[in-house]
Amino acid sequence: METIYKIALVIMFLIVVFNLGQALYFMMTDKGSSRRTAWALTRRIGLSIVLIAMIMLGIWMGWLQPHGVGR
Hints:
The protein is an all-alpha fold. The protein has helices at 2-30, 36-61. Helix 1 packs antiparallel against helix 2 (36-61).
């Protein structure tokens, strides 16, 4: 279960990055003539919230082990 959960987290992260790139593309090509940039950024924010909730759930369930940096 832990491996599948970690793969799902990575896929979700890649989708968030894809939406960010999509917003950049729309911003450069549309020149403000459409709302596609705002919609892509809105999706990115929503997916980021879901990603953070998934990380919190994984830590709470014990599937993810947080570690300190520099210990």
